[in-house]
Design goal:
Two copies of one chain form a homodimer. The first copy, chain A, folds into three domains: 11-95, Rossmann fold (3-Layer(aba) Sandwich); 124-184, 2-Layer Sandwich (Dna Ligase, domain 1); 190-357, ATP-grasp fold, B domain (D-amino Acid Aminotransferase, Chain A, domain 1, 2-Layer Sandwich). In chain A, β1 (11-15), α1 (19-30) and β2 (34-39) form a beta-alpha-beta unit. Chain A has helices at residues 19-30, 61-69, 83-90, 99-105, 108-117, 131-141, 168-174, 230-246, 280-283, 288-296, 323-327; strands spanning 11-15, 34-39, 52-55, 73-76, 125-128, 145-149, 159-162, 180-184, 190-198, 204-206, 210-215, 218-224, 251-260, 263-270, 308-316, 332-336, 347-357. Helices cover 28% and strands 29% of the residues of chain A. Chains A, B: ATP binds at residues 108, 148, 153-159, 183-186, 191, 214, 267-268.
């Protein structure tokens, strides 16, 4: 991939038209870029703020070719893009972040092997393809443990908890024959995440770590500043920079970390803007979405210094009923995704509540 | 106009597709709304971030009907919309801000009469239709003075300065036969503006006044906080609220004020978001664009408290050459409008430089 710097009026192609693509489109517009969304589903949220939308499947090579021809660079809002589509697209236009980040993050075993090779701590893990594999993994790792599909998981989907070895058969059935990974239980006090960015020229910048609380496997709140010692905060940022540099990464990445007495344990990495970074929209001059667009466009990174204490609360399903009340709150910034249909478990929006200025 | 509250997924129609419409569209998306832009010119900047664009003239009643039918409420990014188009549209959908604000602000004489009737100070003025009118006006008001067209002026267009009575003929010729107004010279120390907002339920909120510097008749910088005493600041906010309430206004309005030893003199009002309010994008939790959309949608106003000191610098024409340098600055937020063609005097973007946190 040769170096390039996009000029005002250039077009950024985005694979995926959900809320992350929507907020990436808005950030792109702020820098004078157009966006073109590629999304199989009809009426994607990102389509409301994009110059162009292609509605087609990832197996439609003609549509992929037309899409690539119409854009200057390609990025994505989710990591589970079919490999064949990526192989086709990368012949036509640069893809940022690059293929290596996708290869590593699309498979939980590959990801954990990569992190271990960097000297980072992860939960104990073993690959599980068969009932015999699972018995061996339980014997080695113990319970409680979590069985996850190696690929295509998100928001707690494709996961089964094992309280004891007796749960093995049911958990394996939940995988529906897909290759899986058994992950040992990590005894952590809380979870934090770092939103890191790396520019095409190798400049690295991380946002202040946020502290995450999940409910039913879905992110509930992210709070900054996180409850971390100065040395933990430094560790979190340095290990994120380590990951970004090892992948020669270009763009924004989310790194989820468990905080334990034995140090920080990497839960998972996401090669994209991340729900736990939404607080940056109201806590920083440059947010994670613009930081990603800057990197993808070959620009220098912006100033992501945190200027306020923020709590980000996800609005999921019926939480939309609270919007009238939240809209009248002081120090609260609503971000709604324009999804017409409210469904249980569906991310409909979020609110950033500003607690106080950090200046 | 009956009361209504727009729900997520509703569509806001915007007359005008320039940078103000573009930033209004982005703010609308943040609250879950779609936008539909009506604009005679091709490829409007707002079209890049809108769900729909209608390209048609304001005399195309069929296009206006289709546009109105496709939206839930109509607003606008500029005040010089032809009256016939407004007459047609208001039969179909509510227009916010309302017709009275447009009637008053579309004609400089009507505007100044309105302000005087509210007990506010303006520059001395007289209507000028003929050479005889101009002679009488010069005799009454004196020189230096400024001759302006009564309607359709912006960014210093349609204006001629008179240093002495000898300039009368040339100045009148510049009006090209259009009805005009002679405005006396105001000896002011500096100009400030207040961005005020009023909700459909009558809630009023003003952003902190900004101090404006113009170059060649175009806004150059706005700086907050403005150089004002506490009582001047209070006067500025109260007179803006006075104007908003008198018009039963719904939306955001820009009020330009001259600061003089004799008090604040109203230069002009603009019934829309205003260039001198762009600093709010990086100085407040809720910016002027979202405040306008909230009002137009029937929502409560948001929290516009200023949390930082900001200098907004307009990027005009060749200022775009400075973008690479500005993009690497700390504490600087770029906002580019995606206009492909750079022209002298054309507003291409702006940068908000954060000076320090006001918290």
């Amino acid at each position: 991939m040769t170096d390039f710097i996009l000029q005002t009026g250039a077009t950024i192609g985005i694979l995926g038209g959900g809320q992350l693509g929507r907020m990436l489109s808005v950030a792109a517009s702020r820098l004078g870029f157009k966006t073109h969304i590629f999304e199989p589903g009809a009426n994607p949220p990102a389509g409301d703020v994009a110059a162009q939308v292609t509605t087609a499947g990832y197996d439609d090579l003609g549509a992929l070719t037309d899409f690539a021809s119409a854009v200057d660079v390609i990025t994505y809002e989710f990591e589970n893009i079919p490999t064949e589509a990526l192989n086709h697209l990368e012949k036509l236009r640069p893809i940022r972040p690059g293929r290596e980040a996708l290869r590593v993050s699309q498979d939980r075993i590959t990801e954990k092997d990569f992190l271990r090779d960097l000297g980072l701590q992860t939960a104990p893990y073993m690959a599980v393809d068969t009932a015999e594999d699972l018995d061996r993994a339980i014997a080695a790792i113990g319970t409680p443990a979590i069985l996850k599909t190696r690929r295509f998981g998100y928001d707690g989907k494709g996961q089964a908890r094992l309280k004891s070895p007796a749960d093995a058969a049911n958990a394996l059935a939940d995988m529906a024959g897909a290759p899986a990974i058994l992950e040992g239980f990590v005894d952590f006090s809380h979870e934090v995440s770092v939103i890191g960015a790396r520019s095409a020229s190798g400049q690295v910048s991380c946002f202040d770590p946020g502290e995450n609380v999940h409910r039913d496997g879905i992110l509930h709140t992210t709070t900054v500043p996180a409850n971390l010692t100065a040395s933990q905060r430094m560790d979190a940022v340095l290990l994120t920079a380590n990951i970004l540099n090892a992948l020669e990464y270009v763009g924004v990445m989310g790194v989820e970390l468990f905080v334990t007495p034995q140090g920080l344990i990497v839960n998972e990495i996401a090669p994209r803007v991340h729900n736990s970074g939404h607080w940056t929209q109201n806590g920083c001059v440059i947010d994670q979405f613009e930081q990603h667009i800057r990197a993808v466009a070959g620009w220098p990174l912006g100033d992501g210094t945190r200027h306020a204490d923020v709590e980000m609360l996800n609005l999921i399903g019926d939480d939309m009923d609270k919007v009238p009340e939240i809209s009248a709150e002081g120090n609260a910034a609503l971000h709604l995704y324009g999804k017409a249909e409210v469904k249980a478990g569906r991310k409909m929006g979020h609110v950033n509540r500003i607690k106080k200025s950090a200046g």
